[in-house]
Design brief:
single chain, 421 residues, mainly alpha, Growth Hormone, Chain: A
Length: 421
Amino acid sequence: MTSKSGASGVFTFKILSLFIGLYAAQAITGSLVQTGLPTVLREEGMGLDRIGLLSLLFLPWALKFLWAPLVDRFCVVRLGRRRSWLLVCQALIALSFAVLSLLSPAGHFELMLCVLLGVAVFAATQDIATDALAVEVVDESRRATVSSAGVFGGYVGFLLGVGAWLPVYAAFGWQASMLFMAGVVVVLTIPAVAARGLEDGVPVPLDEAAFRPRLSASFRRPEYRRGLGFMLVYQSGLRLGIALIGPFLVDVGLTLADVGWLKGAGGAAAGLVAALAMLALLRRPSARALMLAALANAALFLALAGVWAGIVSRDLVAPLILAQSAAAATSMIALYAVMIGWCSPRQAGTDFALLQSADAVMAIAFGIAAGFIGQAFGHAAVFALAALLLLAGAALARRHSIASDLPLAAEGALEIQGNQQ
């Protein structure tokens, strides 16, 4: 592979490790907020309504498009246009985890939320720079490989943020677990430190006279508006259903260590298997894949509702959770493959950031809603409503064949490699 910067004529492990490390660092924060902390706080007796407030920590991902132009415009030239942001953000994330080690999650809940909000801002900013770096230095023929590295890195981060963090917390306590997270982020930053010269040839800074992306241009395109509306319906059920998986597992009697292994190592393994299956089966964005993924998630959430209602045996909780992790990964891959095609080549970053921000708003809104619904009516009501919303998403995918909105040129360039479905 020849990078756009001309840094190397070969697609190297150095580049792969860079993106794996960066995406893993982002995923650590999300998995800690989505599963790790809710599980710990529930085990300490905190109410589901307060736990649901943790979803507010996804707010920076919802708003990151607002400061993305600053990431494009400013940098430390000596360190690199994107690398300077990456190094600063990674250092601030590690420092924030060290600060969190001095706080008690139950005794300093509000202060902990403030520090975690800072971590989320740093992670979202790192996300902007990472995505931009991939576009600028990776040859088009290797972007699928980098995307796979990103998915792999995301599951590594999930594994560390839940599967490793919860057992460390259970064995050694809060302070040690936060210092462990700080150390992990430092290790994941090593490839970025070693990536000096990767951006040689990338223009710094942007020419003021260059084309400036505008949100209004996104909404002027009908295929983008249809895609955004579809995504809001399609993601609502999944966001609602996964919001309180950790507390649900605690409430059905699993220990923290069990939850850590099940949602960490087990969930990551299930997601990786699902990703490999999608690579083998799915060649291009597909409405059928979207529909089947939604139906699979709906069936599994109904089964989990049955567990809480006493209809389904609790012995099936572990296999159901693993299957749901695989179904969620399948849904993410199918949806993101279609989302890419809705983005204009002239402002792909702005278009995709807006879609991701809308998805983050969904995570916040439905995470909070899940907390209140669960507190008032129990877990079964949350899972049943999530299944109904997923059925609506599946019906919409089939009826409107949303994948057909992909431009032919983009469709060919952004195919998922493998055998045609």
